[in-house]
Amino acid sequence: MEKSSCIHFCFISCLVLFIVVGSWYRSTNSSLPNSTLQTPWSTSKNRIFSNSKASSVLETQAQTSIDHSAEAPHHPLDPLTVQEINKVRTILSSYEPFSFTLPTIHTVLLDEPDKVQVLKWSKGDALLPRKAQVLALLNGQSHVLTVDLDSSSITSHAINSSSGYPMLSVDDILAASKVPFSNAEFNKSIAARGVSSSDLICLPPSAGWFGPNEEGKRVVKVLCYSKESTPNFYMRPIEGLVMTVDLDTLEVLKFSDTGREIPIPKSTDTDYRYTAQTKEPQMEPLNPISIEQPKGPSFRVEDGHIVKWANWVFHLKADHRAGLVISRVMVRDSENGELRDVMYKGFASEFFVPYMDLDESWYFKSYMDAGEYGLGMSALPLVPLNDCPRHSYYMDGIFATPDGNPFVQPNMICLFERYAGDISWRHSEGLLTDFQIREARPKVTLVARMAASVGNYDYIFDWEFQTDGLINVKVGLSGMLMVKGSPYHQAPNQDAMSGPLISENLIGVVHDHFVTFHLDMDIDGANNSFVNVNLVKERSLPGESPRKSYLKAKRKIAKTEKDAQIKLKLYDPSEFHMINPSKRSRLGNPTGYKIVPGGTAASLLDRDDPPQLRSAFTNNQNRDRSIENKDIVLWYTLGFHHIPCQEDFPVMPTVTSGFELKPVNFFESNPILQAAPAFEKDLPVCRPSASP
Amino acid sequence: MEKSSCIHFCFISCLVLFIVVGSWYRSTNSSLPNSTLQTPWSTSKNRIFSNSKASSVLETQAQTSIDHSAEAPHHPLDPLTVQEINKVRTILSSYEPFSFTLPTIHTVLLDEPDKVQVLKWSKGDALLPRKAQVLALLNGQSHVLTVDLDSSSITSHAINSSSGYPMLSVDDILAASKVPFSNAEFNKSIAARGVSSSDLICLPPSAGWFGPNEEGKRVVKVLCYSKESTPNFYMRPIEGLVMTVDLDTLEVLKFSDTGREIPIPKSTDTDYRYTAQTKEPQMEPLNPISIEQPKGPSFRVEDGHIVKWANWVFHLKADHRAGLVISRVMVRDSENGELRDVMYKGFASEFFVPYMDLDESWYFKSYMDAGEYGLGMSALPLVPLNDCPRHSYYMDGIFATPDGNPFVQPNMICLFERYAGDISWRHSEGLLTDFQIREARPKVTLVARMAASVGNYDYIFDWEFQTDGLINVKVGLSGMLMVKGSPYHQAPNQDAMSGPLISENLIGVVHDHFVTFHLDMDIDGANNSFVNVNLVKERSLPGESPRKSYLKAKRKIAKTEKDAQIKLKLYDPSEFHMINPSKRSRLGNPTGYKIVPGGTAASLLDRDDPPQLRSAFTNNQNRDRSIENKDIVLWYTLGFHHIPCQEDFPVMPTVTSGFELKPVNFFESNPILQAAPAFEKDLPVCRPSASP
Predict the structure, then answer these.
(1) Domain ranges in chain B?
(2) pLDDT for res B19
């Protein structure tokens, strides 16, 4: 039976990579089919930065955010400014259908101009018309509006009737968090547990649809934790207590309490804050170490969003839903210096995090962190020197609150040059020949980073650019596990549990993480083809050679989307190239980039399982349109299987995986042949800061 | 047919990981079954560093090697010293069977004491008896000798009668390189090509057995290149010209010339030396960047080989064959500071690099770079600031020359602390709750590195130690491709070629790289078990849950070696744990480490293909001994499929892959919870060196 399921998965399912035409993307919990990003999560400034109870020593190092109040857009892809968001609110306020009540604003986003227009635009041209896309909720109905900022008018208005709902707003979350406390059953239950309600914190970590019974309702599951004696309440679940709350009526649709016999795990050793540490670390302390650039970093940021570094130029912006978006990525040709297109747009489109526990209080835990909470809205300010090295440049995010006001998330993205002691290329000669050669080049890269704290989990996103043309996309996982209370202090038969015991009375439930990336590759222009370069084992003919077998690379251009649905196979390997069929190197090779997979875990859930139905973007179902020599988008799903362990308690050491976008016959030859080595005379002279 | 071959590979073959008892390892081209390392490649000092024709600007930065002449061993695993190698030679010289002629010395290596004795030994104890293992060749016979340095006697002497031969010596290589020039057919052939013999360089890059016709002979294939106008002769093959040379008689057993119509590729743009670059790079220059530690690095090296850093202690040494060997790896327990065993020994045991071309001058290209050439002997001095960052510590290698004299390879290994701007762990809080938390810790690691230049290819080996207990083993590939001359200037039907055109008249032949690592894990002691933690998809019972499927982690302890032969499967995933069944965490979890695969390419060659027969260590064939709770060794094969591209010409940007050894319930909780963040006040004050 296991073998047959393996055959099934090897040959039928488990997409990791697929292609669709254009940049259209839609997930089932979102109601904006025309948006490429759909970032409908917003919050109120004063709600977010008030009531600070515990403060961290690291906060004091945060840099002050710059004043955005007078900023104007410079590039057609620049996000909406503070002034523009204010203008959207003014226009909405005087819009007749909303004259009685302004709806709750879930997103105010730039309605990006058509790609064709953006590609034609160049600096100095008049800015393309600025439009905002607004996603709002009023009386349980989702409104989708286009606001023309130039004419101060609303040019389209639709009430969404398809399945799915906008991303949760902070108002939704705060309202849902309060619901339990006025529920009699809840209060009885926590009293029976001997918990004071002032020690409780309730959260709606699970939004979305969990099967036919909940269809057509905007529901969340509300769970509670004890924050008594620790800020790490995630490690103190009130196990088995779950309320299904209707977000529009704030009714408790279902109350479930199956865990009264399960103790609340202890608070001891859960606090991870530096100021709370009392034990000495059992290791020798490390001397200060730092990436130093006394002449400053080599990149510059023009007009707020255009990043220029070495041979790269790209547009970088913060985004409500995706966190960070990289657009108009161009690299300089190594022969003639010409700027060449590589990617029109790249971002994390959606997350899918299913937990592997069927209990009443667990089955629904299958998060979609981008579409439900927003990676951008969850990205709190980065911590200088610790989240990003010295000499980093910080970029803020500007979003809208539920009442339509602009809100600045400071230091949301950092940009830094990285030297990790690695080698860009090398060769030594002198052992076999009479050439005496010692050539090596240090590897210096540019990293754009953001980190989303989506409740318990922290997701670190890195887009790393190399001078050899490679783009390395990485996702790091840290923060806290989603844990389950347990009656056990000792691991009994773990086969009966949904994960290992990671502390007393705490189970780290097995789960997966899938991150689907939208990669609108434009190799030397918008029209590209997708090529599967399959390595096939061939047998030699009798008498042909002492060798009996060899591999042969066979290129196959995908004609339609179905051809491009990829199931990675270790024993039937392929390279996956995005090429421009109209552009060839001097040798006749098509210019291209390949995607080098990493983090290859695939979802093994059944296709008809509700979480997998919602997260069907991690399958390879799509239409079967023609994709040859068209403006196509590559979708890559990065996956992690996570079986927790004690080292993940109380906060997880970062686990990182990613994939690469790597030039393949894009350059005529090694583009960093001329790179200079490092010389002692050029390096900085440093002294410890404490010395005189 | 392709589908059936995929089924075959999914279920029958393609090992990536397997286990055998003890540390015994043997490859078919080596004659030392009792040795764990077998590093029989050596060279003469004066041969290596003479005749330098072209010199590199980078050489001037090389650090001066220290004087090793008076060094004594301190630890039972310390490599033989200069004095000890001299003593071995003296003992051999007066050994009666060699009184007429001293054999050619292929290796003089420490004969490591039994593991049990080494584990008992501690600093301050008398050093364990010092013995050398000598592999020598005389009149075509391989002699294996044990030399007792304390009693100055030879305690064992065997003449090898099994298959395989010692690693090539530099004498072998030099002799073989000269053979063509006195061969009439060869001289006629190069004259017909219009090549002057003074522009030629000949090398024996392919040693070993290539099918039944060559069994029982010590043969190499000699190939030639034009070094006219370039030091990068690898890019100028005299295609189709190959001589099979008997290394003992220096006879040309077979002469083959099938490529007279193929032009020698041009020298233009092949020179990669910095001093030879005339074109300006088409990118903005980078400001100096450096990892700075004004208080110095935090590690120390005691007694020449014991490395101590943060919570790690290990023994590090250079090795003829393996390059670098890490032994006695211990990490400090995060609760009580106790030093705990993790790994007794780790090293790259063998390489296998098959090329996918059946032509008469190509079929045999299937290198075993460790056993044929020696990764240590091929490791030329590292280039400071470029191969390794500032503040690196350099370690030399001490080997024996063919005449038995000691030879010092300076700056062969570097050791450095690395800060790459990465995050060790993080969490932010403040969006959903009233806690205001910004906690993040910078990730600082320790790297031990060596780089072998095995002819054209450069292999960079990193062993990276993290404070969270993780060991990250990486192999980087750079240097030059093994290329094939071609009549074509433009890519015609590439299906007929064994790889893409990467420059005019040059084909980058498709090939694989497999590196098999010997990992003698000792989790809390020598006796360990191997556990396959399989993630199995289960279906929910009817009515049990709205969910239909979930994953379940099922642990299975391998009883015998066959149980531990692993075929990685993306759609039937597992974790692979090495545990100590006798030691449990406070929660009852067995203490363990898992191997996290990376670089998962597997050899697809037929099992009966000569290169695969020689490199059968990349299959999973072994005995089926009992391995539960025994002193077992984990073997991991890291693989790369390489389809070359133009960017790989004339020198390849580094491609890196690796695997991790990661603690799983080894520590009671996150061992770096107490780690300190970086503070501005502790960081260095730097100025550009050029400023006053």
Answers:
(1) 16-21+299-419+428-682
(2) 44
Containing H/E element for B3? Answer: helix B2-11
Tell me the CATH architecture of domain B16-21+299-419+428-682: Distorted Sandwich (2.70)
Q: What is the mean pLDDT of residues A443-458?
A: 97
Supply the pLDDT for residue A225.
97
State how far the Cα of A520 lies from the Cα of A535, in Å rounded to an integer. 26
| Distance between CA atoms of residues B444 and B424, nearest Å | 8
Helix (H) or strand (E) holding B89: helix B82-93
DSSP B12: T
Indicate if the pLDDT at residue A655 is higher than 80: yes
Q: Shortest CB distance from B425 goes to which of A9, A552, A654?
A: A654
CA dist B664 and B591 (Å) reads 7
pLDDT tens column, A567-616: 888 899 999 999 999 999 999 999 999 999 988 888 888 888 878 887 87
Q: Which residues of B touch A684 (CB under 8 A)?
A: 288, 290, 292, 686-689
Best mutation target among A284, A331, A429 (most B Cβ atoms within 10 Å) is A429
**ipTM attached to this prediction:** 0.92
Mind giving me the DSSP string for A415-472? Answer: EEEEEEEEEEEEEEE-SSSS--EEEEEEEEEEEEEEEEEETTEEEEEEEEEETTS-EE
B28/B573 Cα distance (integer angstroms): 32
Bridge partner residues of B686 (DSSP): A686
The long-range contacts involving A250-257, CB below 8 angstroms and separated by at least 24 positions, are A250/A175, A250/A176, A250/A179, A252/A179, A252/A180, A252/A183, A252/A185, A252/A186, A253/A217, A253/A219, A255/A183, A255/A185, A255/A186, A256/A360, A256/A361, A257/A185, A257/A189
Distance of CA A244 to the CA centre of its chain: 27
* Residues of A labelled as active-site residues: 369, 457
| Cis amide prior to A650 (ω within 30 degrees) | yes
Q: In the prediction, which pLDDT does B24 show?
A: 26
- Nearest in space to A569 (alpha carbons), one of A607, A539, A541, A535: A535
Could you tell me the pLDDT band of residue B63, with boundaries at 50, 70 and 90?
low
**Which tokens in the block code for residue B390?**
């500032």
Q: Name the minimum distance, in Å, from the CA of B494 to any CA of chain A.
A: 9
Instruction: Give the integer Cα–Cα distance in Å for A617 and A613.
Output: 9
Among residues B363, B457, B459, B593, the one annotated as catalytic is B457
What residue type is assigned to position A307 of the chain? Answer: V
Fold designation for A170-276: Nuclear Transport Factor 2; Chain: A, (3.10.450)
Measured CA distances, A445 to A365, A417, A422, A466, A471 (Å): 38, 6, 10, 5, 10
| Sheet order of strands, A131-138 included | A104-110, A131-138, A141-148, A153-159
Helix axes B2-11, A2-11, angle to 10 degrees: 140
Which residue in B14, B438, B575 is closest to A570 by CB distance? B14
pLDDT of residue A431: 67
Query: Which residue in A272, A433, A611 is closest to B439 by CB distance?
Result: A272
Q: Select the CATH number that applies to the domain covering A2-21+290-399+406-438+445-672 from these four: 3.40.50.300, 2.70.98.20, 2.70.98.10, 2.30.110.20.
A: 2.70.98.20
Strand partners, B507: B484, B501
DSSP string, A374-419: -TTTT-PPP-BTTTB-TT-EEEEEEEE-TTS-EEEEEEEEEEEEEE
CA dist., res. A602 & res. A604, Å (int): 6
CA B536 to CA B573: how far, in whole Å? 8
Residue B57 has pLDDT above 50, yes or no: no
Q: Which of A34, A120, A118 is nearest to A73 (CA)?
A: A118
Which of A141-155, A615-629, A661-675, B126-140 shows the lowest mean pLDDT across its residues?
A615-629
Tell me the CA end-to-end span of chain B in Å, nearest whole number.
72
What integer pLDDT is reported at residue B64 of this predicted model?
56
